[in-house]
Design goal:
about 0% strand; mainly alpha; about 70 residues
Length: about 70
């Protein structure tokens, strides 16, 4: 499996993790340090999700061009 396909296949699980991080931060139960750590983790997941969307868009473009 290529890295591009791996990004796409992990998209939904990464998106769920991102939602969990958001829920944790919004719960006000985390310390400031924990919130910052979660924020950093969320930003990394957000970048991965954005990359997966870009990869999917490119695949669709290639498939569409093959018509």
């Amino acid at each position: 499996m290529t890295k591009k396909n791996t990004n796409i296949s992990n998209f939904e699980s990464d998106l769920k993790k991102l939602q969990k991080i958001l829920d944790d931060i919004e719960s006000d139960k985390l310390s400031l340090e924990e919130s910052i750590d979660k924020y950093k983790e969320g930003m990394e997941l957000s970048k991965k999700c954005q990359k997966a969307l870009e990869d999917a868009k490119q695949i669709i473009k290639v498939l569409d061009d093959e018509k």
